[in-house]
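Protocol step 4 of 6: structure prediction from sequence.
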Amino acid sequence: MDSQEKTLDKENVEGLNVASSDNNAQTPTVPETTAENGAEESKAQVESDKAQEIKKVYKSKKEVVERMKEIAQSEDTPQKEEIDYLKTAFYKMHFAEREADMKAYMENGGDPALYKVLPDEDEETFKAEMSVIKEKRAKVFMEQEQEKQENLKKKLDIIDRIKEMATSPEEANKSYQEFKKLQQEWKDIKLIPADKAKDLWNNYQLYVEQYYDLLKLNSEAREYDFKKNLEIKTKLCEAAENLAKEDDIISAFHQLQKLHQEYRETGPVAKELREELWTRFKAASTVINKRHQQHFEELRAKEEDNLAKKTALCEKVEEIAKEPIKTASDWEKRTKDIIAIQTEWKAIGFAPQKMNVKIFERFRAACDTFFNAKAEFFKELKQKFAENADRKKALVEQAQALQDSTDWKATSDKLIALQKEWKTIGMVPKKLGDKLWNDFLAACNHFFEARNSVNAGTRNEERTNLEKKRELITQLKKLAESTEEGLQEKVRALIDQYNGIGHVPYKEKDKLYAEYHEVLDKLYKDLNVTTAKRRLDKFKNNLKTVAEKGADALDNERGRLMRRYEQLKQEVQTYENNLGFLNVSSKKGNSLIDEMNRKVQKLKDDMELVKNKIKAIDAENKD
């Protein structure tokens, strides 16, 4: 046995990172990591299984269940990667349906606290078929373990027999055919425990080499054996080289394992060809091994990138879940944001195996936090809606109770108060809100239409008053443009006429008021009548009315003004004291002083006006 062939097993195990048995080298066996068997797989096979892609796309849960039934009823051994894929596909659609059902329930006004998840017949069937498959896999695993132990014993017996041949030189030539038969038996035995494979193969190789060293074949038979082995190994080299053209690197890697197994189980070639042949086979293997290694490095890099993307999405959802959301529209907007993020999440591939479950649990927890808060908000909102509806129903009942009243003034005030209170009440569901509003509006309109029909004459009088006041405003405007003497007396006469006219239509009141005071302001400004003097004049005019109530009324008013005068005086003193403490070095300080000076002057003006009012009262008392 040549040295390259002697070290082939070591090269295959260390170079390819695959722990395989000699009987299973064509497909490196790795332990499954499922709960059914608990055996350990090699690192390379875990990566290979993980990289396998299931091409089938399932459109419904029933399709997945049907496939599970086929697998459960089939005599073939269920494949772990397909079972995992079917499980993922089923629950992806299952949770999507449940979420859609809950969303529809919420949109139809359902109470989140009362929402119940209904039993799913497809899920029950899926679980039942999964149990059957688990039992099948467990049974197959136990059978394989038993078969491995039996095969181990058989191979140990073969090693013991070859050992006997290798230690009996006189029997070596005689036992050649038996030796070849034992080699074939060795090749025919497949599965053995992975932890025994390397030591078993090394012992086998040791005694086979010893046997060949003792074997004295005639040159013709030996040359024939070398030639046959050369043909086999040359084809194996060609097959290994062709694997470089294989697009599926995982498949190429598995095929290479088979070629390695065949290469090391094939006998030696002529000594002068051994090095060259082994170098060729090793070079072809190196190409596949590098592609295989690069594939998983890229896969790991992609998974790390996926982890970073999923972490960013988790942070987005967590930030949204922390935001204080106070309106239903904002909740719906944020819900759309969360659903968009969930859609983006589904488009991202797997994260590294150690983090894949953890990152999903973090994402799911953030989403649950958001949707639980949303459910609580709408629960409170629903309660608030109910309270608002009760308050509006009460207002409707009050308005309906007043709609036939003929106490026009009092009832008008009450209905206006009810309308103001209505505006302070929050929202209710649209359908109910529209009905309540229509009922409330109908009751109000019923009363006001009846009142308006009764007060039609009053409205005509108000219209006449409006025309009269507009005519006086026109005359005031003409006086504002005049330069004749005695304007002040004419203005006062027009003002008295204006004040003596009654009410005008409510809708015209504000506009008329603004127009009237605009022309008065201009007249007073032109006549140098200050605002204070106007207020004093008005006060003097009103004194006669107060005097008619008796001397006590004037005394009471004078007492009130004296208290006001003292109050203003105290405020002036306070401001002046504070001014003494202010620093005017800064622009801001200077501005503050200016402002306080203006307030002091305003207070002094008010004091002067109060003082003049007191004098007017004293003069009236004297008269």
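Step 5 (inspection) to follow. Confidence is low (pLDDT under 50) at residues 1-54, 584-588.
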